[in-house]
Protein 1
Amino acid sequence: MNNDIEKVLYSEEDIAAACKRLGTQLAEDYHDKTPLIICVLKGAILFMTDVIRDMDIYAEIDFIDVSSYHGGTASTGTITLLKDLDTDVAGRDILLVEDIIDTGRTLKYLEDLLRDRKANSIKVCTLMDKPSGRVVEAKADYVGFNVPSEFVVGYGLDYEEKYRNLPYVGVLKPEVYSDK
Ligand code: XMP
Ligand code: MG
């Protein structure tokens, strides 16, 4: 699997430092609240489980799964709700945890859903932000890294459901795609 990677963008150490920085800031900002931390599956799973370890506050977690990619490297534009939350979000302070914001469509869909369900506040923490990819307006409150407009894999992010278990974020060799 490591042989498929052309270059490492963010090493394990880079990611650990970003998690510490964001977790510490989040703990400070939410010290007087009990936020509901929502992990957007599947990509944000590693990031969420790491960042919450640096948050010494009371918090709850839940999971939601939406899909806009259907396996390739380009967004299709249609968002499908694959797995809903277990928690009632009415009146709650929500921290959405995302792996990457690209077109912004996923984030807009989720924010609209949470607003419709009467969340008290909604903030967004993303490991990576790709501002050059925006199609709809969407903004994260907490960002680990601003990434160039490349398709990235690892640390939760996939290409055709693989590479999520890489401990770093990298870019695939071109031949990995052209083989398909
Ligand atoms: P949008 O376009 O809705 O995208 O902002 C958000 C979701 O799309 C996926 N995504 C990626 N997945 N490498 C990936 O493995 C990428 O470079 C990439 N860019 C977007 C991701 O699931 C994200 O939550
Ligand atoms: Mg995702």
Protein 2
Amino acid sequence: MKSASRISRIAAAVAGAAVLTAALSAQARELSVSTVLSDAFPWGQAAEKWAELVEERTGGELTLRVYPNSQLVAGDQTREFSAMRSGLIDMAVGSTINWSPQVPELNLFSLPFFMPDEAAVDAVTSGASGEMIFEAIESRGVIPLAWGENGFRQLSNSRGPIDEPADLDGLKIRVVGSPLFQDTFTALGADPTQMSWADAKPALTTGAVDGQENPLSVFDVARIDQVGQQYLTLWNYMNDPLVFAVNQQVWETLSEEERTILRETAVEAGEWEIAMTREQESERLAAIQERGVEVTELTEEQHQAFVNATQSVHEKWTPRIGEELVDAAREAIESR
Ligand code: X2X
């Protein structure tokens, strides 16, 4: 009797534990979110905001765990999209530049001097061209949900002020591992070197490269001036939107309600981050100048010289991006 009752007690305990485990796994599900930059930067903050909102709205049933610094792809940011498509990563808040090797349409944003201002970026992302880009992402097995923004990318270097293409002659510039960047900086007479963000700061520190290009928020937070980058040219040559996205198989396992929450919170986190990034631009520039960086702004004529020098990049890349998409984006920009 005694041992039988003990056995039944143990059995009950085991069954209880199993029920509890099942209930927990049915309730709380954790999904991974990849980012290149940590929450010291607006980009990482966008992902954290998304996680916060999802946790709140699902009552903790869905948890997004953010993995910054491209750690889920061992630092190789240009593999993030493939890793998300294959299911190695559930979700990401990723850069259009880093995903462009797998989604050629995303090169649209990297066409030099194509989008003159923030209104142009908004016109492209929110219009027919934005829909075409989301379709292009979806056709490759990833569900895009919302836009964010890394920002307009500015040029820095350790050698001297740059206000005309000739100033770039022979300068070694670190660029992201995306072929279009190679073409842009080659067209400008520079010597571009592709490397991941993880390798960029060491390369600037040792002088292996003379310059780099990134938004003001990245320059400011990463203290790029401390590794000898004393000259900064504000040339707004491209803007790098971020995309909030989910692997398609993961998406299919979610309930309608969960999908709605994920999409709405992504849109909210994205809008929040875009507004914050833009608002902070002028104070970031002031902080950078205060640290002794010499800032160059271009006259209209100087700007035009850079536009002319990079025309070949448009000619080469428009067919790869798709004429129809480039036209739709151009129309959106002109009627903004
Ligand atoms: O690598 C960069 O320059 C960065 C951080 O801006 C991107 O991931 C595109």
Protein 3
Amino acid sequence: GKVLVSGANGFIAVWVVRSLLEQGYSVRGTVRSADKGKHLKEVFASYGDKFEVVEVPDITLEGAFDEAVKGVDAIEHTASPFHFKAEDPAELLEPAVKGTVGILESARKHGTSVKRVIITSSVAAVLSVPSSPQVFTEADWNDQAVKEVEEKGREASNAAKYRASKTLAERAAWDFHSKHKAEVAWDVVALNPPMVFGPIIHEVSSPHAQNTSSQTMYDVFTKEGSAVGSGSWVDVRDIALAQVLGLQKEEAGGERIIISAGAFSFQDLLDAAPPSSKHQKGTPGAGKDAVHQIRFNAEKSVRLLGLNYHTMAETVADTLEDWEKKGW
Ligand code: NDP
């Protein structure tokens, strides 16, 4: 089959493309400009015409994906801004929501062979900031961030702006499908990963031009005093594999699925580095007793997709090796 991957030049998306090609799928990737497709074509040159790149310059325009969806069997929608620099929340909300609804609308009108659409959502659409430690599941929705953005607009926190964009986009996908399910032959799956770490195979000009989550990990290892904080994490190869399994497992249809290897303290990343690592060590062990306010139950990902997560030691070793190779 052939799979459309939107935002194919992104950190996660290139790994999705690679996993799909390795499993025998043909892939059509969308990028915003021809320039951004060049590196991709080089990376996947050995796959010949099983990999193609098409330009979708502005995902917020009506009909932007009309051509791109033609002839594909499935869609992996990953294109969405992930940064904490937006002044106006619309910078994030518009492309997140319009991009999602737009690709679904194109699939409804022109995606006659599409059987499944996978939305790369986030735990940002699941969590809310709790007053006491909480374990979140797929039943939870981040209405808190949406409310904060509605009430405070530009004064909302940067985290709330991003989280609201992911919540509204995922909700729009479910709403769209429930409204049009009688007319379409496809179902929807939402995957909800936390911070994604791992080796980088997309085009990055320097360590300071990394995608947001990779930058966070790089800072933890290279910037003094940065090993403070916590969250949940997953290896980029695991979320990429989940995107492929999400197409293959019939039972995944109609499900949101949290894709998380677990909660961690930033210090845990430093502690997981091989002894030979030349990077800063922080305060070894300081993260071990942290009480994580936010945890995710990822049992459904194991049950429905059979995922077997990388350990933090594996992810850190492979990421450090990648930096070394890049001369960072
Ligand atoms: P990247 O920043 O590496 O990739 C983002 C992709 O989306 C790029 O292809 C980018 O294109 C495209 N994009 C961003 N803004 C726009 C826009 N306004 N219009 C069109 N395309 C746009 O991020 P990730 O790979 O980390 O993220 C991919 C997806 O995964 C996103 O949906 C993100 O929310 C989600 N996610 C990421 C997590 C993480 O920790 N990395 C965690 C949870 C979810 P261009 O290069 O042209 O800017």
Protein 4
Amino acid sequence: ITNKSDESKYVSGTIANADLDVSDAVGLGTLKPTIVKSAPIRGQEPGTSGLRKKTKEFMSENYLNNFVQAVFDAVIAGGTNVSEGTLVVGGDGRYYNDKAIQTIIKMGVANGVKRFWIGKDGLLSTPAVSATIRERGPVWQTAFGAFILTASHNPGGPEEDFGIKYNTQNGGPAPEYLMQATYSNTTSIKSYKICADFPEVDITTVGSTTILAGDGSSSVVVEVIPSTESHVALLKTIFDFDAIKALLDRDDFTMVYDSMHGVNGPYSKSIFVDELGQPESVLTNHIPKDDFNGGHADPNLTYAKELVATMGLNAKGDKIDVSGPIPSFGAAADGDGDRNMILGTQFFVTPSDSLAVIVANANCIPFFRNQGGLKAVARSMPTSGAVDRVAKDLNLDFFETPTGWKFFGNLMDSKVIFKGKDYTPFICGEESFGTGSDHVREKDGIWAVLAWLNILAANNSDASKPLVTVEDIVQKHWSKYGRNYYCRWDFEGVDKVKATAMMDKMRADSATNTGRTVGSYTIATADDFKYIDPVDGSVAQKQGIRFLMSDGSRIIFRLSGTAGSGATVRMYIEQYETEKLNLPVAVALEELTEIALGLCDILTFCGTKTPTVIT
Ligand code: G6P
Ligand code: ZN
């Protein structure tokens, strides 16, 4: 073992296992792989965002090892030389994160990886992983991929959820074929490779450690990197930090950013305190905890309770009485920092409206302005059509994709894949509190927050004028484009077989439902959404049952692809209005909601018509 380093980022040699005898280590040959016998474990099929299971299951014998080996085998068979470049490893800090990292390093070495970048304290947000892959290092060290340890917004802890996903060289989640190959490998695995003697890495200290093989024939470099470095550096090139600072420094502007004890804490601190000079009091719940403090780190009106109350709202988004001043701006992030919620003073911005407003104002943001303006936008099918109107008005290429960030990635990389047609710069978003652009290949919570602040700053450049608020900006948007009243009802933990039967029935009835009159609406089209990727021609079927009304209103049903146990039915309701712009959402959507409950007949199929969450 040597702590010598010619590494540019070298700080100090850090091997926690200090009592490891060096002469022994040389003799042991710490880089020598051991082949450990194993056998397939059922149910290791990755979902929308990798493999997510109960933590206990992950901690059971060979569970993590099998999956990691299956990924390595798929990646190597796919043509990646894992001995060139770097493997990034980090996670959202949930329980078992630190242990899993050590296992992945040991298995990585055994599978031929020569260089690792590990987020300090094991932390890397999902967008930061993407930025690290794309931005970090001299060319010869550039990352070939990453393991992200996260179950996103799902609760963490020994009794809760754990997850792992793999991202490839473009910084985005592994494509479907790679995950299918991984799954297939898990069903036939006979052994995994591990360097059991490889020393534990002290992930709490930034620095680089070189470990030599006993005979000196090869070496491995493990570098613990500052978690925020690449991502924050990238964000600084995208936004006008001076303008944002001027806004934040105004006496009449206050903000609060709730990291919900997830991985976003260090990122919010780096940006708002270190870069933008704000007091730490603008941050709440910014110390990561391995169980997210027992909470549900999902930024929506139901789960971001504390922030929602601070902003003067209840879980339905209605105003409540608050003693004392309410901040001008509120935001929250999920466990792995890729989701965002935006709030003004007693005002909730739906993710669909947030996307539309950011697109309409994209030229306030240097990243877009400096590239000659935004070129293309995309939203997932269940996301409201608010952004469609902006795209039309601004003459942007527009795409409607199935739910899942991966569908945006193809479009962003279209120049490479699609013979010169370039859809960047590109903005995309989903109703599920995800927004982002082509600066990375994941959704990016803190990007959305900075986008809003940059837009607010541009609207408040004259400090002597009264503050233009979040609500002012949204109201102005509605009066120009109309308002897409929108809500989503979730029925969590319902029986999967029954929920599937309900979807099948609606699918089968599509033809007879088309043309039918329901209440004051006519169903212009009833179908199941199908997507043909314009870039690679791949087809995604059964992406959601749609009832498209003749006046542009929509009712949509999907089964969640990320549900922990049982099934989650999602019901999306949307009504477009050009005149009555300030009705309570529940009032605006009352009739459509009743119609939706009738169309799906969830009460008969699933025994309930009461949602567990409304967003
Ligand atoms: C993850 C994905 C998103 C997707 C969301 C909702 O967060 O990254 O792209 O929109 O899950 O998925 P679900 O299937 O549960 O509605
Ligand atoms: Zn997430």
